[in-house]
Amino acid sequence: MANILQKLQELLPAESIKTSLIDRLSYASDAGFYQLIPQAVVLPATEQEIAALFRLSHQYHVPLVFRAAGTSLSGQSITDGILVDISRYWRKIKLLDNGAAVLVQPGVTGGIVNHYLKKHGTKIGPDPASIHAAMMGGILSNNASGMCCGVAYNSYHTMKALRFMMPDGKMYDTRAEKDCDRFVNEQPGLSSTLSALRLQVLQNEALNHRIRHKYKTKNTVGYSLNALIDYEHPLDIFSHLLIGAEGTLAFISEAELHTIPDKPFKAAALLYFPGIFEACDSIVALRDGGAEALELMDRASLRSVEHLPGLPDFFRSLPEGAAALLCEFQANSPESLEQLVAKASTMLQSLPLLHAAHFTTDETERTFYWKLRKGMFPSVGAVRKRGTTVILEDVAFPVDKLAYALLDLQQLFVKYEYDNAIIFGHAKDGNIHFVITQLLDTTTEVQRYDAFMREVVDLVLKKYDGALKGEHGTGRNMAPFVEAEWGGDAFNMMQQIKNAADPMGLLNPGVIINGSENAHIENLKDLPQVEEEVDKCIECGFCEVNCPSRDATMTPRRRIVARRALQRLKKEGKSGEIKQLLKEYAYDGLDTCATDGLCATDCPVDINTGELVKRLRHEQHGALAKRIAAVMSRHYGVVEKLSRISIGFIAWMDNLAGMQLVTKLTRGMHKHIPAIPVWLHQVKGARTLPKTGQQKADYLFFTSCINRVMESNPPQEKSLQQTLLSLSEKAGFKLVIPDNINGSCCGQPFSSKGFFEAGVSLLEKTIDNLLVWTNDGQVPVVCDFSSCTYTFLQNAKRLSPGYHQKFSKLKFVDSVAFIHDAILPRITLRPTGDKVVLHPTCAVTKMKLNQSLLEIAKTASSDVLVPAHAGCCGMAGDRGFLVPELTAAAARQELDEVKELQGASCYASATTCEISLSNLAGKPYRHIAYLVDALS
């Protein structure tokens, strides 16, 4: 290990090597149920560094595994060797031929690719449920398909060109004519093997037919042998073998994909049937009628999501055995869509539906249907017994035998006592997912799973001639059964392909080709009980794309994996490692968490890791720290006054002679003493609050303590308070700031750091004041800082019943909602054609005000952009001062896009976020109110 680490340090920058205990343990898991602890985690940025890693792997005979998003479900992206994380630097996207094709690198998510393609009315073919989290490396390497794409538009059939590196470090690009000859000359053994295998398949009629037959439906078991039939040149054959190879043959550096039309008009309905037979009987007719998606859900899967709000009244009382189909039609025009729906509605009248079909074109309602479907796997994980593991498998049956197969599968659930097992999936293709949960911490439980899986294999292969994997890749779970599915001849071909491409067997060993007949029950991951948030998590990784610290330290999933690792170490009594892990967790897990809670927005079970971090911070505070926080809370007016004076003085010093003296000084000191905050030059002392008088108000103006102590540079003609007052006056509203507002606060400065008691005490005092100022809640409260608006609503859950009753009388209105709902309808704007860039803050996103913010900007400008990577900037009130590396990493991708825009004006709705973004972008961000006021 020491030699490998030393060599890595010679090959890569220090920041690209992760060998700390917390990194190795937190990278030991992906979304599957296997676990291996890597010797090191590396983040190469160039092809040259990848080639160097291949050489190192061969020199020390250490496995090398590439990992993108780590959403793989069968252990494809874990290793006890070197784990190569390509999620950070490999994010290139280039649109080609007006969106008819797209060039991608493996570290960009499918959702982001589609975001850029949307303006051309196209999208990538694969549409997995995890598309907003899954990255292109995994989508290609697992030959992903999804809900609508079927076989025709999967990764294999939409791949146009590939650039890849062999384990010997040589690079090839299928777009370069010279590489055809070079590949044959430089890879003679592999090339001759591929040509010989192709000839063998062509001469073996039974095998040829078998391969053709297997790929008419979804199948990702083993290597893509259809490449031996579909292509002739060894380079073309091999490049297509890489699709679905799960990173076992070569490294995919970039890919060019054909895109498909993204039909803009969609209608969806949930169709309820008395049983699986009736639902399956309708599949062919609906498919032939033009349905793009037909997602089957059995009664158990429907039960897993029946707690969600917004479902019809009858949903919870559906009969036992009922099933549903999520049916969606898509078209290029409203007229075409209407015809498809009308035809389907006529046909559905003859089917035994439990409730009349209702097709909706409403985007919110349609999105909700898909949320139900996509959230089923994790939702089962959330309600499972604590400590049990969630296992999802992905089989495919002939559509005409689907109903019978599913009933047989349900009988296996009963036989092996998987009482909460569910079935759902892509019925149009006969591709069904099933989910079971069980403990994996005893020999008896592992044997039960083993026996169950072997019966599933027999059921799928022997009784129905189906596929053991439809789209999720072979992985470790099905590696022992590849030969059973394909037969000896085909399996022997796969072994030859692996040996010829990776003769040392170091590239993702054990995946697809595995010599152990028990590989599916080896290196299993147990899930020890830790705490509520941790125990709900199934480590799916959906949260990671929203995390501001993902490129700085850890993600929500890795924070949770580390907590579980800590529990395992406690059980094993490893005191030294426990101490080390806790020390590393203090910075990686706690200090660099913005506690913004955006991780919960894409988490199907609503885990807010920020709340977990706040509680852990709370547990770390000693009695003295809590007493100090309590005193500050009781005398918050004094704290606020001193803060305003101090900030004003420091800002004056920093601006003295334009030298940014304080900024430069604190940056230097912070490098040596991290506890010293970095002063940001964009901070300016707040102006005196305007006097509004205390006459009868239409709205009470609660200007936040942040906005009462600081503003952002460059200085504006009006303060934010004056700007909102000006807008209100133009709209004919009386907005009143209480004379004695100083010292009132939502409690966020304390609660975000885990001082819950101090935060609640301050909030209770503010509630009492607000009830007086609003005449017992009769006047709505407008807040000018979106984070504070959200905190008022969020912190209410910590109130005592008495104060919760008081709080319920108050109505809070965020400034974004106030401008959109109250101001805009009563004023006239002079729209500008200038580019307007928006940063929807975390709070705006969580309060579902993104659309309102967008509509405000579009009313003011004909050219509005929300960057594709807009998300949490990581500021979290003070992180940009205390942990500037967090904000720099969090906003990097978003601001790279913004910096390319000339003459753009940038807007948000939270002062500290605006300060941080202005500092990092080199151009000012302001509150959206300034834009509206200037044009009204």
Plain-language structure description:
The protein is α/β, with parallel strands linked by helices and 936 residues long. Among the domains are: 262-472, FAD-linked oxidases, C-terminal domain (Vanillyl-alcohol Oxidase, Chain A, domain 3, 3-Layer(aba) Sandwich); 528-599, no CATH class; 629-819, no CATH class; 821-935, Rossmann fold. It contains 43 helices and 26 strands. The strands form six sheets. Strands 5, 6, 7, 8, 9 and 10 form a six-stranded antiparallel β-sheet that branches. A six-stranded antiparallel β-sheet has the order 11-13-12-15-16-14, with helices on both faces. A hairpin with a 4-residue loop joins strand 5 and strand 6. Helix 31 (720-731) crosses helix 43. The longest helix is centred in the middle third of the chain and has 21 residues, at 443-463.
SSE blueprint and pairings:
Elements: H1 2-11, E1 17-18, H2 21-26, E2 40-42, H3 47-60, E3 64-67, E4 82-85, E5 93-96, E6 101-104, H4 110-117, E7 122-124, H5 136-141, H6 155-158, E8 159-165, E9 171-173, H7 177-186, H8 188-203, H9 205-214, H10 227-230, H11 234-241, E10 251-261, E11 265-273, H12 276-281, H13 283-288, E12 293-298, H14 299-304, E13 323-331, H15 334-348, H16 363-374, H17 376-383, E14 389-396, H18 402-415, E15 422-426, E16 431-438, H19 443-463, H20 475-478, H21 482-486, H22 488-501, H23 532-536, H24 556-572, H25 575-591, H26 609-620, H27 623-634, H28 636-655, H29 661-672, E17 683-685, E18 699-702, H30 705-709, E19 710-712, H31 720-731, E20 735-736, H32 748-751, H33 756-773, E21 781-783, H34 786-795, H35 801-807, E22 812-814, H36 815-823, E23 832-838, H37 842-846, H38 850-860, E24 861-865, H39 879-882, H40 884-890, H41 892-899, E25 905-908, H42 911-921, E26 925-927, H43 928-935
Parallel strand pairs: 2-4, 3-4, 18-20, 18-21, 21-22, 23-24, 23-25, 25-26
Antiparallel strand pairs: 1-2, 5-6, 6-10, 7-10, 8-9, 8-10, 11-13, 12-13, 12-15, 14-16, 15-16, 17-19
Helix pairs in contact: 1-3, 7-8, 8-11, 8-22, 18-19, 24-25, 27-28, 27-33, 31-36, 31-43, 36-38, 38-43
